[in-house]
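Handout for the seminar on molecular recognition.
Each group receives one record of this type.
Step one: identify the two inputs.
Step two: read the structure output and locate the region that could contact S-adenosyl-L-homocysteine.
Step three: write two sentences on what you found, then compare them with the reference statements printed after the record.
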Amino acid sequence: MSDTKTEETERAAFVRGLRRRGAKDELVLRAMELVPRALFVDPGLRQHAYDDVALPIACGQTMSQPSVVVEMTEALAVTATHRVLEVGTGSGYQAAILAHLAADVVTVDRYRSLVADAQARFQVLGLRNVAALVADGRGGAPARAPFDRIMVTAATPEVPRALFDQLKPDGILVAPVGDPASVQHLIRYAKSPSGISSTTLSAVRFVPLLEGLSATL
Ligand code: SAH
């Protein structure tokens, strides 16, 4: 971006749009204003960076629609002391938003190239509390566990058991649950001494949570 002023004006309008669509959490909105989504999109799609649309990224993956990023982030109820795990780094955009809200963020993806690109973006933005790792997120990030909050950004019929195991006793996990080939629902799970309760949020479409690391990219 050569014209920083225009980019900032665009971001302010972007946040006004998110507010109109129901975003309420001021800290989440502040994070959405601070993170330049333009840095995370494919250069050929730059003109759509601040539209409320999901966009294709490398490796045949997709970055979420901003209003879905807001809904998931609000549902996660992150505070400044939290350690957060994200499964599905993709572009790194959602992790950058979480990094503005949490103490520490670990994000994992099965594509090496996506992890490398996301790390480069975090560096450009000076985000030092977020680490991107190559891993099959179905197993979480055991070396970094436990987590106060876990967000899954890939569709799964069932949340892998390891993720609940790596969630602290009063933790919250948000994931798109359902048929990866069609529609899923965002589910917010809350762990407590009496077990795990769940609340169903919006209908969404995410790319699937797949098994194992990518062999090529
Ligand atoms: N949160 C991202 C978008 C996620 S797209 C963003 O803000 O841009 C879903 C991502 O989940 C893809 O990058 C895909 O490679 C990743 N993914 C799918 N299965 C996975 C698995 N088992 N472990 C880790 N990442 C996985």
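Reference statements: The chain has a mean pLDDT of 96. Residues 143 and 166 are 10 Å apart (CA to CA).
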